[in-house]
Design brief:
121 residues; alpha/beta; four-stranded mixed β-sheet; 2 helices; 8 strands; 36% strand
Length: 121
């Protein structure tokens, strides 16, 4: 149930929806519902959202919002991103409260993954 004045939905562009869906399914286990050829939606990922067909990208350094995903094992998630052909934009670094890295999905959108723990050994 949506909550009053809380972020409820996130939409991002993607020139080709199929590689984006495959990437997020492979790396994060997300599932998608297609709404015609130009839109696909995900839900139950902390916030619901979708990708719409467009030749644009969302990059933090260009003023866009940065979607951030939590991981219990940052290094394993980074390895999965690389294995699924995601591109590391910023390698793992410390920040107040934890560690994170940034990556580009197959559509060219920038995301971050963070963890509050130390590296898994």
């Amino acid at each position: 149930m949506p909550e009053h004045h809380q972020i409820d939905y996130l939409e991002l562009p993607a020139a080709d929806l199929d590689p984006v869906k495959l990437f997020f399914t492979t790396v994060f286990g997300w599932s998608f519902t297609d709404y015609g050829p130009g839109y696909t939606a995900f839900d139950r990922q902390g916030v619901d959202g979708g990708f719409y067909k467009a030749d644009k990208t969302s990059k933090h350094g260009e003023g866009a919002a940065l979607p951030v995903i939590y991981s219990k094992d940052l290094e394993a998630t980074q390895a999965a991103v690389i294995a699924a052909n995601g591109r590391i934009e910023k390698d793992v670094f410390d920040f107040p409260g934890g560690r994170r890295f940034h990556f580009l999905d197959p559509g060219g959108n920038e995301w971050a993954v963070w963890s509050d723990g130390q590296p898994q050994v």
